[in-house]
Structure formats: C-alpha cells, structure tokens
TrEMBL record, chain B:
The keyword Nucleus does not apply. GO terms for biological process: transmembrane transport. Its main location: membrane. Residues 97-316 form the ABC transmembrane type-1 domain. One of its GO terms (cellular component) is plasma membrane. It comes from Actinomadura litoris. It is a multi-pass membrane protein. This is ABC transporter permease subunit.
Length: 684, 333, 273
C-alpha cells in the first residue's frame, strides 16, 4: 500500500521561476525511494513542498497524500499535527539544523512531547532510548550535550533519532550524508536502515549521488530541471537506463572499482557537455535537448511525457527511446586527440616536489570568550612524499586528516615548522623573497570552490592577466590562448565570474594557474563542488593538460573514486600522517593498511547488484581528537584488524607508533602499519 | 569561568585606570578653577586664592605631575578630593549617582525589553502593518536626538496640562517640595515622584526602544530563515511556536554584544535628559563642572563613567556566556 | 536603485541639500540680518518662518545652520571612515603586534570620555567650526575600524585573495586591489551611518555650547536658543529641530537601504555596529 502519494506537484518561487514542474511519486510502507538530481533540479523544493515548509509566497499546486489524506493546502496548524508525527524529515546540514542553544536530548524530547503529551521525564527517557538506538555511545550522558559538542556524523544520528521519535509513516531525508566523510556516510546509512526497520516507515532519500542510492533504494527517480525524467526499480535504472540524461550521469560517474590503466585506456567517460539548465521558464521542448546527443526534431516540438520503457513501472520522459536502447552507444566515446606520450619510468623522471617529515601544528583556542590555549592540532605531523614530472600524486583522507594543510604549507614556500620542502630542487627554507616570487611561477594552485576563488569584481580577462602583470610578463594574446587551452570561448574574457557556470569558473581558475606556465600544479579538491556531469569534463581537461604540458599534479581529494580516475599515485592520510602510499592500481587493488581498506569499503558503488553483495566492515566511531593523538598507532581505536589481534601482536600497536616501510613489489610503495594486510617486503 | 572573568576584569581595570588618568590630566591641564575666584567681587587677594586652590589640589601653579600624584594618592584611599567650593566630591557623587540610577535603570530596562519584543514581533510579521509601524517608529525616534525628544515631550506635556487644567506631567526635578505633606501623605509623595519620573523615563525608554527594536528585528530576520527553525517546524511546532522557542532564544545571543554598545549611548542620552529635566544627577554635574572648571568633580564623574562602560562590557560577556552554550562548554574555535 | 528605502533617503537628502544651498539665494533675508521692525513674530509673507526674539529671520538662520551641520557631518564621516579603513585593514592584514596595539588603542578611545575631551579641547582650539571635524572624527572611527578589521580577517583567507597571494602579488597591491574592493560596501554603508552620527554629535555639542559658537550658527545652537521658549513660541526651535530630524532620517534611510543593496548577507544588517 502506498503511504505517500504525490501527483502533479508544481512549485513556483518568484513570478517566473518554476522549481518543480509536475512531479508525481509514490512510496509504499517500508519502501525506499531514491530521488537523484544535480543542483537546481528541484529535488529539495519537492521535499519541502511535501512537508509544507516552503517559504511564504511560494505557489504550490497538485496533490500530496499521506495515507490517503490530502496535505496540500492545509493550514499551518493542521499540518503541524502531521509533521514530526506521521511525516518526518532529516535535513542536510545537521549543525545548522539543530538549535544551538538546547541540549540534544531536550530537542528530541520536545518532538515527543509536542505530539504525545508525555511527561517531561518520560519524554527524556524515550529520547535517551532513541539516542541509544541510533548508536550514540553513552546516550544518557550525551543527551545533555549541545549540538556543537557532537561530530557531524553524530549530529546526523541525532537528527535521525528525532525523525523516528514518533514512529512516522514516512521519512524524507534530504542529502543526509552529503556533508559527511565516506566512512561516516556508511555509518549514517546503516543507522537510516536501522531506523527504517524500527519504524517500518517509507523513506524518500534525496541525493545527488547515484552511488548512495544504489545500495539503499528500492526504486529510483531521476530529476532534471524540475521534472522526473526517469523512474523505476533500482536495478532497471542502473542496468538499462533509457533517458539520455540518466545514461550520461551514470557513465560520467567515477568509480573506485573502475578499470585500471592510463588515459583513454582507463575508460574515458563520455561527459555531458554544457551546464545544467537553470530554472528558467521552460520553452515547450525537452529541457535536456541542448545537451542531448541523440536529439531529433521531435524533441523540440514538446516537452516529452513519461512513457513506459521497462518492467516494474520503469518510465522515461524521452521521445527517442529507440536511440537509447543500447545505453553504451548513446554518448560517443571521444577520440583521444593527443595520445598520452610514452612516459619514462618513474625512477628516471626528475623530482618536482619533495617533502620530507613536514610538520604543521596549529594552536587551538577553546571557547569564543574564554579563549584559552588548549594544546595544538597536529594537523600535519611528519609527512613525506615526492612528486615526479608528469605524474599525479593524490592526497586522500577524511576531513581533518591534514591534507589541505599540507598543501597550504607547500604553497607558502617558506620554512616549515619542521621538515623540508623542496620545489624543483630548491629548499623553501633558504629562499630569498625575490627567489620565492620567481619560484611562484613554477608552483600554482587551483582551489576547490570556483565561486570564491575568483574575485567577483574582476573580469575574466583581468583575472587571467593578473599573474602576467605581477611577474612583468607581456599580456599580448595570452588571455585568448589560455581561454582556448581550457576549452572556453574568447568571448568569455569580457564576462564577470557570476556570468559563468560552475564548470566554466573552474576552467578559468585552471587557466589562471596555467598563465605562468608552472611545472607543478597543486589542486585542492578541484572538482568536489561541481556536479557529476560537470566534474567529468574538468577532470578530462586536467588529464589532457598534464599530458600536453608535462605538468606534475599534487591533487588533494576526499573522493576515492575521483582519485582513482585521475591519479597515478595515491597517499592515504590519517590524523596528519601518511599511512599508505603507492601507485593507485596497487593500493586500490590490494590495500595494505586497514584504514585504506576501510575507506575503499565505505565508498558506495553505483551498482545495486554489486552493492548488495558487498561485505563491508564499517569503521566504528569517529576519528580521535587531533589535539591529542593517542600513543602507539593512531588508528587502533577504529582499526578492524586490531580487534582480531592477539595480545602480543596488539601490544605492538599500543606502544609503538608504526613507521612507514616498504611493502609489496613496488619500490615506491610503503605502509605505516605493524600488521599490514599484504605481506611486507622482505628487507634484504 | 571565574578565572576568565578575573583576567577580563584585570584587563578592564588597566583600561579604566588609564582612561581615568588621561581624563584627569586633561581636565587638570585645561580647566581653570581659578577663574571662579577671580571673577568674584571684590576680587580676593592672590595669595588667598592660591592657598585655597592648593588646599583643594586645584592650583594650576602646582606642577601637573604633583597634582596628579596627590589625586592618585587620594583615589587610592577612595577619596575623589574636593570641589572648588571645598565640598567633598565623594558625598556629592554618591548622592547624584542615586539620582541618575533612579532615572536610567527604569528607562533602560523598559525600553530595551519592549524594543526586543517589538523587534522580534515585527520580524515575524515582516511586511505587515505591525512591522511597518514598528519600523517607522524606530526610524523616526532614531532620527530625533535626545535633546530634541525631551523638549518635544515637554511641549506635548505642557499642552496636555493646559488642556486638562491639571498638572498631569512634571518636567522639572525629581520632586515637588512638600508633596508628601499633602492630604495623601507618603503616598502623595510617591505619586509626585512617579509624575516627575514619567517624562524623563519616557525619553530614555523611547531612545532605547528604537535602538533595540531595530537591531532585534534584523537579528530575528536572519533567524527566520535558519535551518533549525525549519527543523523545529518539521518536528510539528507551529510557525509561531518555532519562532518563539527556537528563533527568539537564539536571536537574543547577538543582542548581548549590542548591550555593551548601547550602554555608552545610554549614558550620553542620560546626561542630556538630566540636564533638560532638571534632575541633579551625575550627567548634569559633569556638564556643570566642566563649565565651572571643577577638575576633581569632572575626573570623578569620568572615572565612574569609564567603570560603567566597562562593567556593561563585562555584563554583556557574562550574558553571552549564560545564553550561549557554545561559549560555556568551549567548542573548538 | 531598486531599494525603496535607499530611494526615499536619496530623494529626501537631495531635497534637503538643494534647499540648504538654494534657500539662502531666494530668501530676502540674510542669516545675519536683523529686522528691527519684527521681533519674535510668527510666519508671515515677510518672514516665512517668523523671526527670533532678536529680530533675525528664522528661515535664513535655519538654512544656514543646516548647511553647517551637513557640511560638518559629511566631512566628519569621510575622515572617520578613512581612518577606520586605514587602521582596520592594517590591523587585520598585518596582524601580530601591530594589530594588538591598534586594537588596544581602539579600546582606550572607546573608554575615554569623548565628551570631556571635546568640551575641553574645542574652546582651546579657537572655536573655528572646521576644527570640529578632526575632533569629532577622532572619536567616531573606532567602531567602524573594528568592523573593518573583522572583515579583513575573513577576506584575507578567501580563496580569491589566497590565489592572488600565491601568484606572487605583493602586499600593498593585495590590499588595494583585492581587500579594499571587497570591503567597499561596508565602508560606503558605514560612511553613511557615520554622517548621521556626526550630524547628531555636532548639534549635541553645539547645543551644549561647545561646538559651533556665536556668531556662527548650526542646528544645535538654534535648538538650544529656541528651547527656552519652545512651549510658547515654537518657531525657531521647531524649524531647526525638524530640519535636523529630516536630515538624520534621510541619511539613515539611505544608509540602511545601501546596506540591503550592497551587503544583503551582512550579519549586522540593521545597524548597531
């Protein structure tokens, strides 16, 4: 029986902005519906419309029925009896979604008391039970703590506890794991699963991440420009997608289990070109038309209606389904314009960047008023690696592991707190100011957020000219050359950043970094804030540029699938240390450190079949406090292998901090673990 | 918390000492109490004036450093010195401080509390009549300086008194002499005091109301869109309850820093109010003492004012800590 | 300008400005003329806003006062905002001891009784109204400087500024090209807020007799002169007070409107810094 039914829902904001345009969905008891869409697809507006929480002045029409009762058009008073009781919601950002001034136990208890009239004590007791259910250790004590005292994952558990407090019929979860690290994401998804089983509620999981949905949802709905363009059973959608947008999305998704190899042989994904269309008033045509490779005249005639294309109610809003019968043939695999030059073996290539025993500790002050020094964060605590010409080294790890700090330390080109940084053979500690400025030409950076990394008050032409004028170089036709290099039009030179899409801005950021013809590019999560379909294009560009210009990349990322796609070598960081470093193929193929293994396990695959069969050992708990790393191995409190060791073996972990040592066949591979998962190289 | 407060206090104490010293030095260097004696008829002999001035540590022929030393020594004993007429400053200061507090506290509490409520209400009813009314009123009052506001209120009061033929409003001093000797006894005295309080309190309260309502309205507007208010509604609270229980409580936090800022304005406004309504408070004393060149009185009032401003700063810190658990339990900042 | 408030403020301020400039040109009486045939009269065709007890034309006097008040207010705002921008960016960008010393100076100035300093210094400096400008400005820049510093601290860490820094752009150009433009909206808004504060401060001082002094007039002196008889003969007081209120109202509207337009996400929206 369907508990939540939405039909022909329309949401309009300002006079001419239609966020949701006639979406219908239905979820049955205990069923999980995944809604997938990129930014601007209208998925959050849809959720808020169902909850009746859209801001005043929003036009909503259609029908939302919960167990047959119409919710749309009801007053706030009537809706408030349904919200939080039968219909609950989990929001994206659990820090801002919890009231900062009340203890979490009280906030959960409030949810109970609003609807049941329980006594204060009973509600509190129930709140503690719920916190225990969602896996918060020491629930009775933690119930009295405030939201800021919890980590992101723990806060999201609190949100889930709040959502299931009154045994809801349906739960809407809007990007519940987006702000979280991959290991924590796996934990939270497990909690959501527990919650579903405890309440039997229908769940609507909204996300931009196709991989998250694959293992969790029963049915999937793909949204594009405010419309549901394809929906059906999860296996159908992933095996036989019929809407070109879905196909492109699935194909452009980087995967941790992707094929190994370099460049084109690595399986170039066909990118979906162009930015996703905004919420502009739609002309009467398929909204995906400008980006569609198989469009024909019929697509421009009218907006296509969903038609049945497969079993289990698999529908797609596409008029040209005959062309999409074979998903693999929809997007042509582009010819590789420049065949990757045969690289010399790694050992023979010159070292561009060398880092040895780098240390960076930040002082930590606690409290906003009672600012007292409370130790220091061991952000980077003895990190060493090298990057050679023509290769990409990726630093991966969860947030707070020190990867960005390491990058910034290198960028300063100054004497580090401890250790050594050498760029092109020059020790940064010994640089004169003039020499340092000259060296900046060789080391450039691309930042994560293309919205903040470009000065909004400067035109693209000025942004690209600034590095040249700074170093006294002639501008000439360089701006046009740079735009061409990153795949932009000369006309873009006259625009301001806000006139560009996210992907275009990031291209400008890359062009600025390339203006001085550097030899080393440091990339700080360059694709993390882009939509999947835009990510693919930017990654292709980066790969192409590296091959053409013979660059070396140091690539900081949290997404292991992206790293798999772009890097040659990978260094896995944990609490300011590199726990494992080696070639991507070897590390991903046979991880030696239990942490690497756990990270790889936690990454969801965009394949429902494989996802269901995976056996994973999720990491427990949160990373330890970086101000006070535990003695011995820093990972042992979360280490799945540690628990399986006998007393003698585990004493080694308790007492001795593991040093990196060579492992496997590769001379450049090392792991910092006393009990690696693959045999240590026999030391001769 | 206690250790932190102590450190703050020490920091503040240094600032107060410095500010008070600077104020004394400035006043002592620039003001000329001698003129008060020389202006007398018949003009007293020079030596007599000198002796008199020296006795009160007001002699401008004594080196500044020496006078400052004497002043500090007195202050260390808790003695602010003498006025130019030889009366002890301390006694007068405490008396006038009482008068000022009677005036300021009521007006400030009333004005800020009403202002916070009105501002929050206006934000919730954004764009409606109530909001427009509150916004208009606060804009208007903010544009009216205290010394104009006070006179305007006096004009209205005098018209009302004329129209009703009664003395409903009083606008000179704290009491009418002999008010409690009337048929109602002490009760009549109290009523008389209330009537005298009415207008000056209204002046101060209005100014505070305008400041607080405008600020609270904008703080509340920020909170209206906050995620946690949406969460509270998703839990089943109605919009109004979510805004009151979750929104207003959180929007009060930034008001604590604002409190410190407005307290300085309050003191200034209080000064004008006292002067205009003939209340013999500290503010009026400062103005009069500056014109009379009464160095010790000026220095004493400034000491108190500096201390008051810093006390307000401390109070706002403490309120911040009380209202915001993030401060209390020390998040990693 | 789409903002209604800013538009209202702009129009009102424009009207007041043109009145204070054009008014004296059309008025038959100069501000220092005395009409010995009309003392303390109400409005008439001869004296549009009436006369003072000493026979001066209220219309001419009020406009003269408004001119002075506006002139002082705007100059003070410009000077104090400039000071704030200078000290704020330097403290925020350079940091370290420079920052500490500057901010400590700000604290001290905030605690120092400005009224006393002004009262003591202003008569000693000859009493020319121009000297009021630096005096007032010296006590008005601190709050803005704090805001500028706080904002500089956050702007300094913005990726666009970091990117420029890692390109090798030098500190002065970094401040001029990348930091100050990002503070522009804050500075514009604060300058306009400071105009209203300065106008009130000037008239308050003049009201107490320690600002602009006779024979010159400002709105403050006119209000002080007219106050005594305000209940029975409100013309001189009413005109000066009304004009003062209108000026401050216009500037406040303009400043708040600008804030909404330029700085829609400012946490301090609605004043109070």
């Amino acid at each position: 029986m369907n508990v939540l039914e939405v039909t022909d829902l329309r949401v309009g904001f300002a006079p001419d902005v239609q966020a949701v345009r006639g979406v219908g969905l239905s979820v049955g008891q205990g069923e999980v519906l995944g809604i997938v869409g990129e930014s601007g697809s209208g998925k959050t507006a849809l959720a808020l419309a169902v909850m009746g929480l859209l801001p005043e002045g929003t036009r909503t029409s259609g029908s939302v029925r919960l167990r047959g009762e119409e919710l749309l058009g009801r007053s706030d008073r009537e809706l408030s009896r349904v919200r939080g009781k039968d219909l609950a919601m989990v929001f994206q950002d659990p820090l801002s979604a919890l009231t900062p001034v009340y203890a979490v136990g009280d906030q959960i208890a409030e949810t109970i008391r609003i609807h049941s009239g329980a006594t204060r004590a009973a509600a509190r007791a129930r709140a503690v039970e719920l916190l225990d259910l969602v896996g918060i250790p020491g629930a009775a004590r933690r119930a009295r703590a405030y939201p800021h005292e919890f980590s992101g994952g723990m806060r999201q558990r609190v949100m889930i506890a709040m959502a299931i407090a009154n045994d809801p019929v349906a739960i809407l979860a809007d990007e519940p794991t987006t702000a979280l690290d991959v290991t924590i994401q796996a934990q939270v998804l497990d909690v959501l699963r527990v919650a579903k089983e405890a309440t039997g509620a229908a769940i609507v999981l909204i996300t931009h991440d196709l991989a998250v949905v694959a293992g969790f949802a029963d049915r999937v709905m793909v949204m594009y420009a405010g419309r549901a363009v394809e929906s059906g059973p999860v296996d159908e959608i992933y095996r036989r997608p019929r809407m070109p947008y879905t196909i492109g999305l699935l194909q452009s998704l980087p995967r941790v289990d992707g094929p190994a190899g370099e460049g084109a042989a690595r399986g170039r994904r066909a990118p979906i070109e162009g930015p996703p269309s905004g919420a502009a008033p739609p002309p009467a045509r398929c909204p995906f038309l400008p980006r569609c490779p198989v469009a024909d005249a019929a697509c421009a005639a009218a907006e296509p209606e969903p038609i049945l294309v497969g079993p289990g109610g698999h529908v797609a809003a596409c008029v040209n389904t005959s062309a999409t019968a074979d998903p693999a043939a929809v997007f042509p695999v582009p010819d590789v314009a420049v065949p990757p030059p045969a690289r010399r073996p790694r050992r023979e290539r010159p070292i561009v960047l060398e880092v040895a025993d780098l240390v960076r500790h930040h002082p930590v002050y606690r409290g906003a008023l009672l600012r007292r020094r409370a130790g220091s964060v061991h952000a980077v605590d003895g990190v060493g690696f090298d990057v050679r010409e023509g290769e990409t080294l990726a630093l991966v790890g969860e947030s707070g592991c020190g990867k960005t700090t390491a990058l910034m330390e290198i960028l300063r080109l100054a004497r580090p707190q401890r250790g050594r940084v050498a760029v092109l053979g020059e020790d940064t500690a010994a640089l004169s100011p003039a020499r340092r400025k000259a060296l900046r030409r060789d080391v450039q950076v691309v930042f994560q957020d293309p919205f903040t990394s470009l000065d909004p008050r400067m035109r693209v032409a000025d942004i690209l000219a600034e590095p040249l004028t700074t170093h006294g170089l002639p501008i000439g036709r360089r701006v046009e050359e740079l735009l061409d290099l990153v795949g932009l039009e000369p006309a873009h030179a006259g625009r301001y950043p806000h006139g560009l899409s996210g992907g275009q801005r990031q291209r400008v950021g890359i062009a600025r970094a390339l203006a001085l013809e550097p030899r080393l590019l440091l990339l700080d999560e360059p694709v993390a804030s882009l939509d999947v379909s835009v990510q693919a294009g930017v990654m292709d560009l980066l790969e192409e540029l590296r091959a053409r210009l013979g660059l070396a990349y140091l690539f900081v990322a949290h997404d292991l699938a992206v790293v798999r796609r772009i890097a040659d070598r990978v260094a896995v960081m944990h609490l300011g240390r590199i726990v494992e470093i080696g070639s991507v193929d070897e590390v991903y193929g046979a991880p030696a450190h239990p942490y690497t293994r756990a990270l790889l396990d936690a990454v969801p695959l965009p394949d429902p079949f494989l996802e269901r069969r995976r056996r994973r050992v999720p990491l427990r708990g949160d990373p330890p406090d970086p101000t006070d790393p535990p003695p011995g191995c820093r990972f042992r409190s979360r280490c799945p292998r540690y628990t399986a060791l006998d007393a003698v073996e585990s004493r080694l972990c308790d007492e001795h901090d593991p040093r990196p040592r060579a492992v496997g066949h590769d001379a450049d591979r090392s792991v910092a673990c006393h009990h690696p998962l693959i045999a240590a190289k026999v030391e001769l | 918390m206690a250790a932190f407060l102590l450190r703050r206090l020490a920091n503040y104490a240094v600032l107060v000492v410095l500010a008070a010293s600077l104020a004394y030095l400035l006043a002592a260097a620039a003001l000329t109490p001698r003129a008060n004696y020389e202006g007398r008829a018949p003009r007293p002999p020079e030596a007599v004036v000198d002796a008199q001035l020296t006795r009160f540590n007001l002699n401008d022929r004594t080196p500044l450093a020496e006078r400052y030393g004497t002043w500090v020594a007195g202050l260390a004993r808790g003695d602010f010195g003498r006025t130019w007429q030889g009366e002890p400053v301390n006694a007068e200061l405490w008396r006038r401080l009482g008068v000022s507090l009677r005036l300021l506290v009521l007006g400030a509490v009333l004005g800020s509390a009403l202002g916070v409520l009105a501002g929050a209400y206006a934000a919730v009813r954004r764009g409606r009549t109530a909001d427009l009314l509150v916004t208009f009123l606060s804009y208007l009052v903010l544009a009216v300086p205290v010394f104009v506001l006070a006179v305007l209120l006096q004009i209205v009061a005098s018209r009302t008194n004329q129209a009703t033929g009664l003395r409903v409003f009083e606008w000179v001093g704290e009491t009418t002499p002999g008010a409690s000797d009337g048929p109602f006894g002490a009760l009549g005295g109290l009523g008389d005091r209330v009537r005298h309080l009415l207008l000056p309190t209204a002046t101060i309260a209005l100014a505070q109301f305008a400041l607080y309502s405008r600020y609270q309205r904008s703080m509340m507007l920020d909170v209206l869109q906050a995620d946690f208010v949406r969460t509270a509604r998703a839990k089943g609270l109605r919009r109004r309850d979510a805004l009151l229980r979750h929104g207003l409580r959180t929007a009060l936090i930034p008001m604590t820093t604002y409190f410190a800022y407005t307290s300085g304005l309050l003191l200034l406004g209080g000064m004008f109010t006292e002067k205009l309504f003939g209340w013999h408070g500290v503010g009026e004393w400062l103005i009069d003492s500056v014109t009379r060149g009464d160095v010790n009185a000026v220095a004493a009032v400034n000491c108190v004012a500096a201390a008051a401003v810093l006390l307000a700063g401390m109070a706002s810190d403490v309120m911040y800590g009380v209202l915001d658990p993030r401060v209390r339990t020390g998040a990693v900042a | 300008m789409r903002n209604r408030r800013a538009l209202c403020g702009c129009v009102l301020l424009g009207l007041l400005l043109s009145l204070s400039i054009a008014g004296p040109l059309v008025s038959p009486w100069g501000w220092d003329d005395t009409d010995f045939t009309a003392f303390r009269q109400g409005p008439s065709a001869r004296h549009w806003f009436g006369t003072t007890p000493s026979g001066r034309d209220v219309f001419a006097l009020t406009l003269r006062g408004a001119q002075k008040s506006l002139l002082i207010g705007v100059s003070v705002a410009v000077v104090s905002t400039g000071l704030a921008a200078l000290f704020g960016t330097v403290a925020g960008f350079v940091g370290g001891w420079t920052d500490r010393v500057l901010m400590w100076g700000v604290d001290l100035l905030l605690v120092l009784p400005s009224l006393l300093v002004l009262a003591v210094l202003s008569p000693r400096l000859g009493g020319h109204w121009l000297l009021l400008v630096p005096l007032l400005a010296a006590f008005l820049w601190m709050v803005t400087a704090r805001a500028v510093r706080a904002m500089t601290l956050s702007v300094r860490e913005r990726e666009s500024v970091l990117a420029a820094r890692f390109l090798g752009v030098g500190t002065p150009r970094l401040i001029a090209r990348h930091i100050v433009p990002q503070l522009a909206s804050l500075l514009v808004v604060d300058a306009s807020v400071n105009v209203s504060v300065a106008v009130i401060a000037e008239s308050a001082l003049s009201f107490l007799g320690i600002g602009v002094r006779a024979p010159d007039v400002s709105l403050g002196t006119l209000i002080a002169d007219g106050r005594g008889a305000a209940t029975t003969y409100p013309w001189p007081f009413g005109c000066a007070a009304g004009l003062l209120v209108l000026i401050v109202l216009a500037v406040n509207l303009l400043g708040d409107g600008l804030r909404d337009v330029l700085d829609p996400l400012s946490p301090s929206r609605g004043g109070g810094r």
